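Write out the 3D structure for:
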Amino acid sequence: MNYTTRLITIEDYDDILKLWNSVAETRRAMNPVDDTREGIERYLKRNPNTCFAALADGEIVGVIPTGHDGRRAIVHHMCVHEKCRRKGFAAKLVSLAEESLKAEGIQKVFGLVFKDNDPANAFWKEQGYSFRTNLNYRNKRLNDEIPTGD
């Protein structure tokens, strides 16, 4: 399957939201504040050169929104449509994101993966991402509309 890649823009929001909602693993990670058009627009303004999409036949079939705080980066809602998995789309998106982060002087990137998402955990391991057992992920919502998680 042929595909192209490019930076994400806010004009892609509806197509990205459609993709995210089509994949159960991504849908359950979303929240009603940060993943709105306004939230994604704010994110893209802060990270204009590190968020990428893969397109096949003109349709967005993969995304990797990646941002940083000037010190380390995080991957948010990496997602590839089920029909496009195991074809190199995700690995290409990760490579693009990592190279763009390196160009901005970032030396470390992390992502959060649900413990029970075996395919995603295996993918990230294949990409060279280590599994940290010496940390606890702590979360505090500053807006009651955002779910607390398990």
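The first helix runs from residue 13 to 22.
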